[in-house]
Amino acid sequence: MAIAAILAAVAVPSSPGAAAPAEDGQIGIRLLEAPVSRRDDPRAHMYIVDHLKPGSTITRRFEVLNQTDQAREFEVYPGAASLNNDEFLPGADREGNELTSWIKLSVDKVVLQPGDTAEVEATIAVPDKASKGERYGVLWSETRIAPDKHGNIGAIRRAGIRVYLNVGPGGEPVSNFDIGEIKTTRGADGVPVISTAVTNTGERALDLTGTLSLSDGPGSMRAGPYHLNTATTLAPGATGIVMAALDAKLPDGDWKLDLELASGIVKHKLNRVVTLPPPGVSLVADGGTWPWSWIGLAGGGALLAVFTGAVALRRRRPVTPVVGLHYRPRHH
Predict the structure, then answer these.
(1) Cis-peptide into 192, omega within 30 deg
(2) Which residue, 167, 189, 204, sits at the end of a domain?
(3) Structural domain tally of the chain?
(4) pTM exceeds 0.90
(5) CB atoms within 10 A of CB 7
(6) pLDDT value at residue 271
(7) Alpha-carbon gap, residue 110 to 265, rounded angstroms
(8) Can you list the positions of beta strands (E) in 87-148?
(9) Per-residue pLDDT tens digits for 162-197
(10) Which CATH number covers residue 238?
């Protein structure tokens, strides 16, 4: 038991070439180390992602950067977050939760000259009687801009690092997902859309990334890759719709689809022949290369509300973005 607790606290430094700080144009923030056990996990290069037993403690270092042209005071603090409707939602202002009560920072504010950085250490101590389950939070860096005599209004700017902390006995819970049936549709505007349902079948939250490419189309045409570009997070048991809006110039007909999706080290690929239909038609694949079944436009109309050339995870309501949460720390 003692050995397991020590190993859980070991971290490796990040490498200079792998990271750019999360930023909103004024604040930069990045993780400086990740757990040894997650050396190959891209999510651990972006966020604090850990599994701890009750009574365990870890420390993680991160860096705050002043990207303005003036000296600024930056406040650093942990904030609450939750998963709701397949979104990672930060709490309002300085709202706390159970996880934030376990987090202590080495400093609560720093004053930085333009271009300067400050290193901060976060200590996460899980109580002995903590219940099993995953908690969510954000480590925030925040600066305030006061109103001036020229009539410019004040503002609060902040950037943060997500925290995904799972607590429980034993080893890391399983992470996995299933890719469902493939659908294609083309709206009245001529934009073809390919979509598939993704279900989180594991015990930890997933942040899906990936690409979709087409080849062997009419006249041996190719298209893509189209990059999945979303901050959507799937809770255990949740299902989301991954969709790609393609180029309206792509012709109707059969294409070879190559879909790659990943969350951290969990990766799945799907290769299939798909048919891009004429406007007003949707098709559903029943699992194999053939056959396709036809459905009316009403059945696929919800798939049309996307942007051309973008890949998105359909949500039930608009996303509240978390500024500066996407980055990749250095790693040796």
Answers:
(1) no
(2) 167
(3) 2
(4) no
(5) 12
(6) 92
(7) 35
(8) 87-90, 103-105, 109-112, 117-125, 133-145
(9) 999 999 999 999 999 999 999 999 999 999 999 888
(10) 2.60.40.10
